[in-house]
Design brief:
Length: 331
């Protein structure tokens, strides 16, 4: 099987590439990645001898068509992925998440190639803290940020290409991922690298916002389950019942580092900050028999802390610029 992985030099795509090379020696992997600020070639060094890497944009229709024509499956991770960046400048989000997905869809349509679209639970908006509900595939779309609205739009493009043109596609909407190779602009690695540097963690607002954490390896095993056994045209929600508020996550990290649980700072809140995400993954579990393996959040977090401690060469070059950017918004 020839698999084209878009965004394979980013956090989840790199972990997916590693998992695929490790567990599926029969798969021929090509990664297409523009190597934006979020992509890092170092993340692919451990698998460099087993993949073909193409540097380019998913908005480049000639390049995309050539690569898609040589593939059996496209797994589409490439995106602008950070909410805070989308509040500062939405333009690359529209280009990559909407125009890029459109470009890929036109190519898979022309060449009859199977497509799997990676999306987020944020397309559903947010839930109240005291609401017992979780997101299901029937929850109406109600995105809040420029990031989540462009992801929602990309999902709708995929659905329309399935219905109107018979494209063989599936969609997955996953909750917040954590694990190795995550960009240090994101919540958990930002706080881990702050703590390594002796800087207090930064909590937006009161810190009561809830995210439904899943280990990146579990997200990626679910993606393979959908590629292997998923029904064409279907949407699968991926989550592992990992709801935690941000304060709890920061206090877990402080404990791991042996600090007092109050050793953090409250900083400016994110405008329009979604309160709570929660996933009902029963379709994935019941239909496809998928189960998460990393169900103990604390030990997953400890392993992630160890990874950042051991891979300072990977993240250090970005740290100063990331913090300088947050300083501009008082975060
Ligand atoms: P990331 O920002 O770490 O990586 C994105 C990758 O896409 C980078 O390597 C970047 O260089 C590449 N890219 C960006 N624009 C491109 C373009 N125009 N052409 C080609 N490549 C381009 O993101 P991530 O956290 O790994 O997220 C991957 C996917 O998973 C995204 O679609 C995101 O919406 C989705 N998702 C992420 C999470 C999460 O918690 N991180 C949760 C659910 C869904
Ligand atoms: O320094 C911080 N302090 C803080 O309190 C940062 C960077 C974030 N936060 C909060 C904001 C959120 O409530 O932590 C939570 C998680 O923030 P992010 O890591 O920015 O993730 P989020 O906005 O929830 O979106 C993530 O999950 C869904 C990914 O970045 C998206 O790509 C994915 O779709």
């Amino acid at each position: 099987m020839r698999v084209l992985i878009t965004g394979g030099a980013g956090f989840i795509g790199a972990n997916f590439t590693h998992q695929t090379v490790r567990e599926r020696p029969d798969v021929q992997v090509t990664v297409l990645d523009a190597l934006t600020y979020a992509g890092d070639l170092k993340s692919l060094v451990p698998v460099a001898d087993h993949i073909t890497l193409v540097r380019g944009s998913i908005t480049d229709s000639d390049l995309v068509e050539r690569l898609v024509a040589e593939s059996d499956v496209v797994v589409h991770f490439a995106a602008e992925s950070h909410n805070d960046n989308s509040l500062n400048d939405p333009s690359p989000f529209v280009q990559t998440n909407l125009v890029g997905t459109f470009t890929l869809l036109e190519a898979v349509r022309k060449h009859g190639v199977r497509f799997h679209h990676i999306s987020t639970d944020e397309v559903y908006g947010d839930l109240e803290l005291d609401d017992p509900a979780k997101f299901t595939p029937e929850t109406p779309y109600n995105p809040s940020s420029p990031y989540s609205s462009t992801k929602a739009g990309s999902d709708l493009l995929v659905r329309a290409w399935v219905r109107s043109f018979g494209v063989e596609a599936t969609i997955s909407n996953c909750s917040n991922n954590y694990g190795p190779y995550q960009h240090i602009e994101k919540f958990i690695p930002r706080q881990i690298t702050n703590l390594i540097d002796g800087v207090r963690p930064k909590l937006y607002g009161a810190g009561l916002n809830v995210r439904d954490w899943i280990h990146v390896e579990d997200h990626n095993s679910a993606v393979w389950a959908i590629i292997d056994k998923g029904r064409i045209g279907e949407t699968y929600l991926i989550g592992a019942d990992g709801e935690k508020n941000n304060l709890e996550v920061v206090q877990n990290l402080l404990e791991i580092f042996g600090h007092d649980k109050n050793d953090f700072d409250h900083v400016a809140d994110r405008p329009g900050h979604d309160m709570r995400y929660a996933i009902d993954a029963s379709r994935l579990r019941d239909e496809l028999g998928w189960e998460p393996r990393f169900t103990d959040f604390r030990s997953g977090l400890e392993a992630t802390v160890d990874w950042y401690r051991e891979h300072e060469v990977w993240w250090r070059p970005r740290k100063e610029a990331v913090e300088a950017k947050y300083a501009q918004t008082g975060q």
